[in-house]
Design brief:
The chain has helices at 2-9, 24-33, 45-52, 63-71, 107-117, 136-146, 186-197, 209-240, 244-251, 275-284, 291-317, 345-355, 403-409; strands at 14-18, 37-41, 75-78, 89-92, 124-128, 156-160, 179-183, 203-206, 326-330, 359-363, 369-370, 377-378, 391-394, 413-415, 430-432. The protein has 433 residues and is α/β, with parallel strands linked by helices. It has two domains: 2-207, Rossmann fold (3-Layer(aba) Sandwich); 226-432, NAD(P)-binding Rossmann-like Domain (Rossmann fold, 3-Layer(aba) Sandwich). Helix 5 (107-117) links the parallel strand 4 (89-92) and strand 5 (124-128).
């Protein structure tokens, strides 16, 4: 332990970040900035190639930030598993998606751990950052990384530190976002804190890896449940003839006991739609139903369908049949001002509109093309002619969208983000969620 701590303190430790996507790349950059020799290991040859050429492929890291680190040899990229053999510390940032049945898909984590174990040596720190169910580190990682050969807290140090990445957030980045960490033993925690303490302003140590895993799930369950609540309030408000956006803004003036959440076309991204279901799955194995999670998931998952129904109803009121209607989806990224469309509700909205017979285009300067989920679409040009469409559906409220022109030219706008409220013009053509 002391040898590894000295290496970390002197910035002599070799660090491998497994998975250099939205989570792993910013972490690798901070580690390299702190003086560590960092290798970004990824199975995607395109990421390896671009990182090796100091070309960023995510919004939150600029190529100009990579260049000095790559040029100095502090940040390298590789698809060769051999880099794990020379690592003093390995941080795993691989995906943890859901299966088609909404059960956890742990295959990326288990494969990464097997690959590390096959090249493991004494005095090595392994940290998992990928979101997972409580008990994963203790039940899966620790046995794989010891196997009767290494002793936890003496030969191998295992910790869990959940990522807290918010793509597109200009204020909270890797360094200044407080970071939770739990170790399998006090020594594991001490070594993990030494590494992260070199790059994070505020560490939040907790008593176990199970606790650290639960912290992450609670954070995103809190958001998913409250978004589910406000989405249901939006559905109720529409049936009551009440403007839900006005309700929320008025309620938010209360200086205590209220936190505003806003409705939308559904959940997207790599965290909120997925993480609570890890906890729900885990509880089913313990004969307990996570009722709030299940209800919220049911409501949130139904929102793209509600948007499609709203478009259908709005077209009918204007005596325009949905079958054959030309519809433009504005924004396919899962949140504003990012290029990430993982789990984006826009995908389900497009499929739903197509099922009605509508001809669907999309416009999104951040996402030039979508070639997944059964779609092969390219964003229409930035100078899109809104007037040629029977309806425009605002799914993602990007800041660079000219909403004034949209309002002026469009025949009908279904606004799921309340993006046009502040504009002057003919609001009779705007239908809000």
């Amino acid at each position: 332990m002391e040898k590894l701590l000295r290496k970390i303190e002197r910035r002599e430790a070799n660090v491998v970040v497994v998975g250099v996507g939205y989570v792993g790349l910013p972490l690798a950059v901070e580690l390299a900035r702190a003086g560590f020799a960092v290798t970004g290991y990824d199975k995607d040859p395109e990421k390896v190639r671009r990182l090796g050429r100091a070309e960023s492929y995510i919004d939150d890291i600029r190529s100009a930030e990579l260049a000095p680190l790559v040029d100095a040899g502090k940040l390298t990229a590789s698809a060769d598993l051999g880099v794990l053999s020379a690592a003093d510390a390995v941080v795993v940032c691989v995906p943890t998606p859901l299966s088609k049945n909404k059960d956890p898909d742990m295959s990326f984590v288990t494969q990464a751990m097997e690959e590390i174990a096959a090249r493991q040596h004494a005095e090595m720190l392994i940290v998992l950052e990928s979101t997972t169910y409580p008990g994963t580190t203790r039940e899966v990682l620790a046995p794989t990384l010891t196997r009767g050969i290494y002793e936890l807290g003496k030969d191998v140090f295992v910790a869990f530190s959940p990522e807290r990445v918010d793509p597109g957030n200009a204020q909270w980045k890797t360094r200044n976002t407080p970071k939770v960490i739990g170790g399998m033993t006090p020594a594991c925690l001490a070594v993990g804190r030494a590494l992260y303490g070199a790059i994070i302003d505020t560490l939040v140590p907790v008593g176990s890896t199970d606790t650290a895993e639960m912290v992450k799930l609670f954070e995103n369950t809190f958001r998913a449940v409250n978004i589910g609540l406000v989405n249901e309030v939006a559905l109720m408000s529409r049936r009551l003839g009440v403007d839900v956006w006005e309700v929320i803004r008025a309620a938010a003036t209360k200086p205590f006991g209220f936190m505003p959440f806003y409705p939308g076309p559904g959940l997207g991204g790599h965290c909120i739609p997925i993480d609570p279901l890890y906890l729900s799955w885990r509880m089913r194995g313990l004969k307990y139903q996570a009722r709030f999670i299940d209800v919220a998931d049911s409501i949130n998952s139904a929102m793209p369908g509600e948007v499609v129904s709203l478009v259908h109803e709005s077209l009918n009121r204007r005596r325009v049949p949905a079958n054959g209607a030309k519809v433009l989806v504005s924004g396919v990224a899962y949140k504003k001002d990012v290029a990430d469309y993982r789990e984006s509700p826009a995908i389900d909205v497009i499929h739903g509109l197509r099922s009605l017979g509508a001809e669907v285009d999309y416009v999104d300067r951040h996402v030039p093309e979508v070639r997944e989920h059964g779609l092969e679409l390219r964003s229409v040009c930035p100078s899109v002619d809104y007037g040629r469409y029977d309806a425009v559906v605002v799914v993602t409220d990007h800041s660079d969208t000219d909403y004034a022109r949209m309002l002026s030219e469009s025949k009908l706008i279904v606004d799921t983000r309340d993006a046009l409220r502040a504009l002057d013009g003919d609001k009779s053509k705007v239908v809000r969620l």
